[in-house]
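Q: My labmate handed me this sequence with no annotations at all. I'd like to see what the chain might look like in three dimensions before we decide whether it's worth expressing. Could you predict it?
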Amino acid sequence: MYMGELNEFAKLHKGKNIIASFSVYEPSQSVAMKAYYYKVVVPQFQKGMYDNGNRWSEKDTELYMRNLCPVTMGEVVDIETGEYRSDPVSINDLSNSEFVEYIDFLKQFAAEELGVFIEDATKYVKK
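A: Here is what I predict for the chain of 127 residues:
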């Protein structure tokens, strides 16, 4: 929010008391993008999975999604045995560019493999 927007809001409510709450976040993934991911991308992806015969919880669907994409796959090799194990990366550990790449990957996968169109974040997230 910009100071100009705050001033305009105050002008609209002149003579009234205003109580505001502000939160300051580090410059990482925006809360709005995380909300878009959890409130739009994951549920629409889950619906596509459901329509294709997979009755998974939202939690299981989200874990599956992180295992699909190379950005979040998190494969780790055990040097002694030479075996790979999958430790999906949390979205909280992704940079902004990685998070955007991950969401773009999921949107394309959903369209091609599940027949689901996931709308762009611009419809939900204002800058």
